Amino acid sequence: MSAKLDDSKPIFIQIAEELESGILDNTFPEGSRVPSTNEFAAHYQINPATAAKGINRLVDEGILFKKRGIGMFVSDGAKEQVAGKRKTQFYETYIVPLINEAAKLDISQEELESMIKKGGHSS
């Protein structure tokens, strides 16, 4: 678990995103148990209901599942599902605005591709 929460977005979303990141980097492989609401609450000193809201969001999406009396676990296929979700978010957050700004500046597709291939190295 990361040490600090960010004030710029709701805590329950940060909990869900932290779990998703752990699934992507294999901190929480498919089939493994994830920290409980009480563990998140104690670690971040937050209300357990807030932690539960983040975890339940992932349960609703089928990324986590509950084993009654044991805890929450990572579903089969969760890594692929999270990666797909994150790719969609990446596209909507970065690519669409990039393409729109490029169009405003009359940057051709070829020119844009060249800029991307340069990889942040200015010439």
Automatic annotation (TrEMBL):
Tell me the ranges covered by the HTH gntR-type domain, including all copies. Answer: 9-77
Q: Does the keyword Hydrolase apply?
A: no
The molecular function GO annotations come to: DNA binding; DNA-binding transcription factor activity
- Coiled-coil spans are none
Signal peptide location:
none
Q: Which Gene3D superfamilies does the UniProt entry name for this protein?
A: Winged helix-like DNA-binding domain superfamily/Winged helix DNA-binding domain
The record, for CDD domains, names: WHTH_GntR
Keywords linked to the UniProt accession: DNA-binding, Transcription, Transcription regulation
**Which SMART domains does this entry report, sorted A to Z?**
HTH_GNTR
Check the record and name the InterPro entries matching this protein: Tscrpt_reg_HTH_GntR, WH-like_DNA-bd_sf, WH_DNA-bd_sf
Q: Which Pfam families match?
A: GntR (PF00392)
Q: What is this protein's name?
A: GntR family transcriptional regulator
